Amino acid sequence: MSTLYKLFGIVLIIAGIPLLLTPIPVGLIIITLGLALIIANSNTARGALRRERAKHDGLNRWLIRAERVIPHPFDRILKETDAPPRR
Q1: pLDDT: which is higher, 65 or 74
Q2: What 8-state DSSP symbol labels residue 87?
Q3: Rounded distance between C-alpha atoms, residue 37 and residue 8, angstroms
Q4: What is the longest distance spanned by two Cα atoms in the chain?
Q5: What residue ranges do the domains of the chain occupy?
Q6: What is the spatial distance between Cα 20 and Cα 75, in angstroms, rounded to a whole number?
Q7: pLDDT digits (tens, 9 = 90+) for 4-63
Q8: How confident is the model at residue 87, as a pLDDT?
């Protein structure tokens, strides 16, 4: 089932790319949902996001702010990828 969710996430990302060019960027929402599906179901993707959050303070701050405003199931996904504190 996890593989099916990952595949559906990839399909959403691919479908969302051309929709970024529309006047209302619906593609951004679709791509975000696809990324959330992949991150929720892939240890590799969670590790990659965790590493990127550790390297890029701006991305980490943006995702921390996003954790506060997004619906509950999605904030759990982001909290699992919190970057370890820098030394």
Answers
A1: 65
A2: -
A3: 8
A4: 44
A5: 1-41, 43-82
A6: 24
A7: 999 999 999 999 999 998 888 899 999 989 998 999 899 999 999 999 999 999 999 998
A8: 61
Q: Taking 90 as the threshold, does the pLDDT of residue 1 lie above it?
A: no
Query: C-alpha dihedral over 61, 70, 82, 9, to 10 degrees?
Result: -110
Residue 85 has phi, psi (to 5 degrees) of: -60, 140
**pLDDT above 80 (res 74):** no
Residues belonging to the chain: 87
In order, the DSSP letters of the chain are -HHHHHHHHHHHHHHHHHHTTSSS-HHHHHHHHHHHHHHHH-HHHHHHHHHHHHH-HHHHHHHHHHHHHS-HHHHHHHHHTPPPPP-
Distances (CA, A) of 47 to 12, 39, 44, 75, 80: 21, 9, 5, 16, 10
CA distance 51 to 16: 25
